[in-house]
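Journal club prep — side note

Before the paper discussion, L.F. wants everyone to see what a predicted structure for a comparable chain looks like in token form. Sequence:
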Amino acid sequence: MDSKSFSKVLILSMYFLLSFFYSCRKEKEGLFGNETSPKTFWTANKSVLPHAIREEKFYQLFPGYKKNFHFEGSGVFSKGNLFYVVFDNTKAIGVIDSSLTLNSELNFLKGNLFEKSNYEGITFKDLEPSSFYVMIESLEVNNSYYPAIVKLDTNLNSLEQKFVKFELEKKNKGLEGISFINRNGENFILGLCEGNFCNSDKEKTRGNGRIQVLKETETEWVKVAEIKLPASINFLDYADMDIENGRVAIVSQVSSAVWVGEFHSEKWELLDKGSIFYFPFGDREGNPGLGGEIIYCNIEGVSWIGPHEIVVVSDKRNEDQEKWCKHKEEMIHIFEIPHS
């Protein structure tokens, strides 16, 4: 090899080497909260959930539906051996047997399938008279936007709808999660804000999540307190929550993670001693454990099944997300929470 050829090889080698180090630096910046986009990557210090116990596409669970029919999962509540699922693109509520049997008559839809809902979460009041509550992210009132809560009977028939007296900055950045709680004989709804500081700019900062404590009046739901999430829950957004017997689960879509902790038995606060678990990473074919990409890109709803199991649901992949996010979109998943 002459000196001229050697120089060309050396220059090309240095170019590819520098490109590699630059891409690594960019990736590393995404691990520590300095990212300009919400993309994160696997690192050895992250606690990751085991592979899903079971997971299925929604369209395969309901008899008679094909792949081109979208079920944009946004909230879920586990009750008995059934999962009640809301979708933000339809007012039909899915009732799915916990066995997740495909194409089964045990799985069905109740409600108007072809009317958009903006439903973002579902919870249940296990006190007489029992009822479901569904969170509507936002509705327009006199050029302003407010969340609303729909009350349904145990057969999922709509009983009433009331606005939440909590004005939003943008119509698509409101209250995402919902949980019913009875404290000292009084009933409350907890509404989880999607963005940090309840701000519409959800990627602005981490670790400043908020829950609005809501009390029902004759005409509306009013805020009576605000819960500041522990700063250790350093998510970029907050998609849903569930509280059962003092156990709390909060999921983040953008961070692709779940926080598991405890609710204070007397105060409106969460105990700062929980744990963050990331949903399994995988390769670009959607195979968990075979790569370092985020594959659970659209986790939107969560509910406790038992002391160490949760059920979560996934929304549709957005056009600006990575193509491999399609593998886990519009699904229901069951995970075990690691415990000692």
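L.F.'s comment for the group: The two ends are 62 Å apart (CA to CA). Keep this in mind when we get to the figures.
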